[in-house]
Amino acid sequence: MNLVAAIEWAEGYHRRGLYSPMGVAFHWVMAALMIFQLAHGWYLEWQPVGGNKYVGYQTHTQIGLTIMLLGTLRLFWHSQLSGPGNVDGASLTGKASRLLQTWFYVSFFALPISGWVMWSTLPSDLPLSVAGVIPFPNLPFDQLSEGLQHRLMQWAATTHFWIVWITTLVIPGHAGAAVLHYVFKRDRVLPSMFDLNGPRVPGVVGSAPEKGSVAGPPRT
Ligand code: HEM
Ligand code: HEM
To answer: Whose CA, among 7, 19, 96, 171, lies 20 to 30 Å from 119?
Structure first.
């Protein structure tokens, strides 16, 4: 399947108010990785200094760089598509929802980049890689003065820390809003991220726009 066919396949799902299996896979794989990474990062932070903590942080860097790679592919995929459009983008809640989603995309890059800056100022020989498979370079900070390296480390650690905190608060807001949609508005926002076929309709490639309501009108 080439890119144009893949886009038309995904838009077929969007026209029925659903995310495509590709969008659903990106969403849940990255949500699981981000939640694991946040919990594991805090866990490591509380561990006593030693070899285990160091090796634990190496795993942390491998998962973090994987998130950046997946985030790049997802951003590209997302930029090619219109989306299911279940939320009224002009409403205040629609704008808030868009803001939180945009924050996630920012965090997919800002967390790994600030982590990369930190790691590159540490006097360590542990190599970086994406998922432990694709080698990834350290930034050439060992050529800078010690004072400058120290300032870079502090700047990056503060940035990492604040983005971690904001993301930790944004996740329950985002997930809570999706659940509220399901419980109170009873619309398709939450099912759109789970349902790969839609009620009564198999995953038809490129279904026509007028079939947009096949998944059923919002329940009242
Ligand atoms: C999206 C991916 C990432 C998430 C969610 C994440 C999350 C966290 C969390 C929760 C902590 C502990 C709290 C803190 O010190 O801020 C932490 C610390 C840290 N992270 Fe990440 N991280 C990510 C990516 C990375 C990457 C790619 C690297 C390195 C290449 C990295 C390097 C570090 C380091 C060195 C620390 C220790 C900071 C310190 O002790 O001050 N992180 N991270
Ligand atoms: C844990 C519970 C979660 C639930 C129930 C949930 C639910 C949803 C739903 C229903 C949508 C579609 C909203 C719409 O159409 O406007 C969505 C979109 C989105 N979610 Fe989540 N989500 C969760 C966690 C996360 C996490 C942890 C992240 C980030 C790491 C995340 C990132 C996104 C992004 C970026 C979108 C926009 C669509 C896209 O670009 O793929 N979600 N989520």
So the answer is: 171
Domain 3-213 grouped into CATH 1.50.10: no
Strand partners, 129: 135
pLDDT of residue 201: 53
192 CA closest ligand 2 atom index: 10
182 lines ligand 1 (CB under 6 A): no
Q: Average pLDDT, stretch 153-165?
A: 98
Q: Ligand 2, from 174, 181, 183, 186: best to mutate by most atoms within 8 Å of Cβ?
A: 174
Whether residue 57 has its Cβ less than 6 Å from ligand 1: yes
Is residue 220 a contact partner of residue 186, using CB atoms and an 8 Å limit?
Answer: yes
10 Å CB burial of residue 200 (0-12, 13-18, 19+) is exposed
Over residues 42-82, the pLDDT tens digits come to: 999 999 988 789 889 999 999 999 999 999 999 999 999 98
pLDDT at 1: 74
| Residue 210, token pair as written in the block | 């007028």
By 3-state DSSP, what share of the chain in percent is helix, strand and coil, each rounded to 5?
Answer: 70, 5, 30
